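Justification of resources, computational component.

The compute hours requested in this renewal are based largely on the per-chain cost of generating structure records like the one below. Each record pairs the submitted sequence with a full structure-token output. That output is archived, and it is also reused by downstream analysis tasks.
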Amino acid sequence: MIEVIDKKDLTQRDTTKDRVFFLNQYQDDFVFSDARHPAIVASWGTGKTLAGIQRSIMLSETYPNNLGIIFRKEYTDLRDSTVKDFESYTGWKIDSQRECKLKNGSVIMFRHMEEMNNLQNVNLGWFWIEQAEELETDDQFFKLWGRLRRKDTKQSGFITANTNGHNWIYKLWKLGELEGGKLCEATTLDNVHNLDPEFIKSLDILKKEKPTVYNRFVLNSWDESDTSDNVIPPEWVDLAMRRFYAPDGDTVLGVDVARYGDDDTVIFPIKGRRGFPHLAGPSFLRSHIFDVQAILSR
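The structure output for this chain reads:
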């Protein structure tokens, strides 16, 4: 069973083999959320996976003959992490078809990204993407979203993730662009009472040696990411938005590199308060060397 601070209950079940967990408030808010698309984006050691598993179980037990899917980008991560965590937390076994069948007829499937095309004719009641920040775009989320059409269920598509800069998760949940979305956040320090003191102590070393890693994985900062082409950190952009243009006479050249090569690149030379925007497609950029002086002299 799930035992929580405010004593919310699940539907009746066989409790002879149940394992009792005490949820933090941010986990409780996520597991029992009435939102169609809740997300828990939190740091190391905050129990994201536990929360995702409990919401999956709740939706599968509450609605008989439900069909849900637990999705992970890579097969090895699905097999070595997600599946093992599910069996460890629940005590249930997943069969050779990577499915867990409940007594009420509900089925929980475990799949990875390369199997996405095999889900064309599946009517889901719910889906969960674990470590959703591993996905570069929101394509998989919305493909699964389109499979949420199982009748007589509480349809829900939800994610658990670490922060990863201003990515698609930031856009949909942090900025609130996803209708029906709900964001639950937590830092490692919010769950310190459940973590090994030696681990907590070691974080001081991480803070000193790798502050960007500390900010992202301990403080849940959205301004750090693994993006290799992220030349300008998001916090620099935030600071720049509160500054004036360069004084008359000074020259500034800004280049917004087209990520993934699927849009235009903006080059914006500024001299004083005057700007001269130029647009160039990625193929043009790859085959030409710009004469910056010629652009600025216009």
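Residues 1-16, 275-293 have pLDDT under 50 and may be disordered. The two ends are 71 Å apart (CA to CA).
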